UniProtKB/TrEMBL annotation:
GO cellular component: cytoplasmic vesicle; membrane
Annotated signal peptide: none
Domain of life: Eukaryota
Protein's recorded name: CD164 sialomucin-like 2 protein
Record's bilayer topology term: Single-pass type I membrane protein
Record-linked PANTHER family: CD164 SIALOMUCIN-LIKE 2 PROTEIN, MUCIN/PORIMIN
Alphabetical keyword list: Glycoprotein, Membrane, Signal, Transmembrane, Transmembrane helix
Bias-annotated ranges (Polar residues): 12-21
Similarity remark: Belongs to the CD164 family.
Region annotation Disordered: where it falls in the sequence: 1-24
Pfam family, one: MGC-24
Length: 68
């Protein structure tokens, strides 16, 4: 086992003795995050552009596709 047996041991009802948390988490009031909103728009538009060019490329390689 290359000495990795002690890294993962299933617990059989024993309790963990980890150090207690010393700091309190920061409170962030709910609200509108402009950077996240703009990033989401950029992500969606990028995915749409990639899908558009993939479909355009696939249609151009289709030998049965004919323009009128």
């Amino acid at each position: 086992m290359l000495g990795l047996g002690s890294l993962w041991e299933p617990s059989m009802g024993t309790t963990s003795t980890s150090a207690p948390l010393t700091g309190s988490p920061e409170f962030h009031p709910p609200g509108f995050d402009t950077a996240s909103f703009v990033g989401g728009i950029v992500l969606v538009l990028s995915i749409q552009a990639v899908v558009f060019f993939i479909i355009k490329f696939i249609k151009s390689k289709d030998s049965t596709y004919q323009t009128l």
